[in-house]
Amino acid sequence: MLNTVSRYYFSANGKHIRPLLVMLIAQATSIATKRRGRTSILVDSDPHVKSGLTILPTHRRLAEITEMIHTSSLLHDDVIDHAETRRGLPAIQKRFGNKMAIFAGDFLLARASMALARLRDPEVIEIMASVLCDLVDGEFKQLKNLEDEDAPMAQPDESAFEYYLEKTYLKTGSLIAKSCRSSAILSNSTDDIVEAAYIYGRNLGIAFQLIDDLLDFTVSSTEFGKPVGADLELGLATAPVLYAWQEFPELGPLVARKFSGEGDVARAWDLVHASSGVERTRALARRYVERANEALSILPSSSATQALERVTLSVLTRTK
Ligand code: FPP
Ligand code: MG
Fold it and tell me: Keyword Magnesium: yes or no (predicted)?
């Protein structure tokens, strides 16, 4: 039963962006400068060895671990958010109930922890373990924001955007950034390259979540694979709302009462669409995408760095 429930989301068509990035960073860093003192095992059967670009078995395992941590967090998230659908399927708890969803999430996390320990790399273990703290911290910040009893602001100030972006890094950027960092470490890269991999993942991760928050206002549920308008229903004021609020101060009281009043969700939806919130969110995501691609310039140009650039740009145009 535990296996069936744990496998449920893996059976659907996920985007696998996190494992893809781990593998591409592995290849991109395989031909970059190396630290001394570490040994690595090459797999001769790997077709990329001929081109000089290599993926180690430890990279493959890291890619699996990353997707398992992500899926584990989704199993918990869908219970917290009362999700209806995910990846075009009924949400996990709709199918198996809350308890099973939580157990399956814990089970996946436990299996990911075992696989992480088996990498026998204390630096990577520590970094990836810190992601788990960040995920919870991000969710907690989201919740705390909701429970803030402060008087409604006339307009979102600088700190409201800062808080939102910090939360965005913690809930989405951290796993992507630290998986990229770990992938570079497993390639035995020098510190500057490890740092560049992290900066790349951090900026890409934030852009990815900004677009996720934007798609909540712009695509159909069928295309997205999960309900749209969900963030307003959950009481969340994401980037499109924060920008809209700058143009329409009357959004302030709605944000403060978490869109809980009669007709609040529909009103906020209309104000976001009447504002430039969606375009400004896309422009903000574009700036993060540019920063991500700038970080790649330290790496020797290869088919892997080109693919990384394409992945980054595709984040801006994705519809699911
Ligand atoms: C999706 O966000 C949720 C996350 C990115 C992180 C969720 C993290 C936790 C529940 C903490 C527990 C962590 C573990 C590893 C068990 P979203 O709700 O904005 O996106 P969605 O629209 O896809 O649901
Ligand atoms: Mg959710």
Answer: yes
How many angstroms separate the alpha carbon of residue 264 from the centre of ligand 1?
25
Residue written as token pair 């395989």: 30
* CATH code (residue 95): 1.10.600.10
The two three-digit tokens of residue 208, written as one number: 């990815």
The phi, psi pair for 84, rounded to 5°, reads -90, -45
Express each pLDDT in 109-151 by its tens digit: 999 999 999 999 999 999 999 999 999 999 999 988 766 656 6
Q: How far apart are the first and last CA of the chain?
A: 30
User: Is any atom of ligand 1 closer than 6 Å to the C-beta of 102?
Assistant: no
Using the mean position of ligand 2's atoms as its centre, give its distance from the Cα of residue 195 in Å: 30
Predicted confidence (pLDDT) per residue in 62-113, tens digit: 999 999 999 999 999 999 999 999 998 999 999 999 999 999 999 999 999 9
Nearest Cα neighbor of 282 from 203, 172, 208 is: 208
**CA Rg value for the chain:** 20
Task: Please state the domain count of the chain.
Answer: 1
Closest residue by Cα to residue 20 from 222, 226, 291, 315: 315
- Output the six-digit token pair for 289: 């995408």
Ligand 1 pocket: which of 71, 74, 145 to mutate (most atoms within 8 A of CB): 74
* Pocket flag, ligand 1, residue 168 (CB < 6 Å): no
> Rounded distance, CA 258 to CA 243, Å?
16
Identify any residues that bridge with 189 across adjacent strands, giving them in sequence order.
34
Distance 208 CA to ligand 2 centre (A): 15
| Alpha helices (H) along 81-190 | 92-96, 98-117, 122-147, 158-168, 174-186
Q: How far is the CA of 239 from the centre of ligand 2 (A)?
A: 16
- The helix (run of H) or strand (run of E) holding residue 85 is strand 85-86
